[in-house]
Amino acid sequence: MKTKQITVSYSRTVNLGDFHGIKVALGQVADIEDGDNVEECYHALFEMLKEETKKEIFPVARQYKTLSLGVVETFRGKPIVEQENSNAD
Fold first, then answer.
1. Cα distance between residue 27 and residue 38, in whole Å
2. Residue 57 CB-density burial (10 A; 0-12 exposed, 13-18 middle, 19+ buried)
3. Which of 40, 57, 69, 72 has the most CB atoms around its CB within 10 Å?
């Protein structure tokens, strides 16, 4: 049997907390040419989809968590959270 085409799908869900989440699902179809190793093609597509999913999902998740935490600024790429004054009279 000769494989002529492969389809690879990858999805990832990130829990944002407070019963919110984000899911990104990507898929790709590739034609297999003579001399191509099907398993190598599959793994290459899988890794490509995995990286593309990360590029899409993490900025959104990071932005959501920053907004929901009440971040007012960042220092060296890390959020500085505005804290309530617990010593208030």
1. 17
2. middle
3. 57
